[in-house]
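Justification of resources, computational component.

The compute hours requested in this renewal are based largely on the per-chain cost of generating structure records like the one below. Each record pairs the submitted sequence with a full structure-token output. That output is archived, and it is also reused by downstream analysis tasks.
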Amino acid sequence: MVQLFKFLLKSTKSPARAHFRSNFLDTLRLTVRGGHGGNGLPKYGGVGGQGGCVYFVAKEGLTLRKLAQNLRDTRVQATSGEDSSKVSIFGRRGVDQRIEVPLGVQVYDEQQKLLADLNEDEASCIVAGGGTGGCTGNNFLGRPGESRTVHLDLKLIADVGLVGFPNAGKSTLLKAISNAKPKIAAYPFTTIRPQIGTVEYSDLRSISIADLPGLIEGAHANFGMGHKFLKHIERTRLLLFMVDIFGFQLSPRHPHRDCLSNIYALNKELELYDPTLLEKPCVLLLNKMDKEGAQQILQNLKPSINDLSNGLAACPEELRPSRVLKFEHILPISAKNSARITQVKQQLRETLDGLAEQHLVTDNQQLKEQLQQRVGVIGPKIT
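The structure output for this chain reads:
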């Protein structure tokens, strides 16, 4: 009777709709344990083998979803060291457990302490060391390996991070400019998980763009899925802001805000989440310029958009940032206009190339200064 009741109860539970079953996974919890050290042999002074360790290795092209599918269990344990014996005085070491993780993963312990930041290919870290083998120092008794629960937090690595409020046209732009195929519809929150697209050029150059789901007010305080989305723009080289020239209204209960207020609101959210994000170079796209009345709105707001400090006095207190963004370029576009899309592609490339040249000049200057200091210290003295 109990089994029949369980079967009927299970049959009434309808599975979640496919649209809400996210294939994108950016957090994963694992329990890791190093191998136990082998026991020593007091009679012959034998030393037990050290337990194996558990370590992570960053791999390009891997996702946390694939990692979770490849692991049979969320508990990962390395093998124990071999006990010492008359045949083998020195016990063999336990086998290490190698776990490949996606590029861009940060590893935290249960106290949220950062253990490793694996943002380079083949970067590795030991998350659970093996126990020492039995010897004279521990009465020939092998020690247990480290055991801990770790959290893998994935932050996407992309050249460009696309930021904006819902229904600004970000997905339309990403589909037009790259090889990504995001869902597009005429209602907010169409994008419910981050998307990565690659912009390809005729000379085989490519640029990656991360499209983040639309932000809402309070994202910095983790309202909605704020931190889950905002963390992905931390590692982008360029921020691409996109706003609707006609403004945005989240719902009938919320007030309608014009284009300039939306820019200030985005500025404020990034500032409250992480002020260092405002130091990143950024480009502004004013979308839906193909509609009637868009040019007139742009003419009225152009002085304040070109220099955001000009309109701070009229900005509502709750949206007013203490430090305003400085855009490298401001492009009025229509995401459905192919000519404008080509202009955006070219502008993104020129901006990224300019940033790369600046970093190269800075690195060369620092290297030159270091060489000069070194020559001054170890070189011959001229009198």
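The CA atoms of residues 122 and 168 lie 38 Å apart. Residues 338-378 form the longest helix (41 residues).
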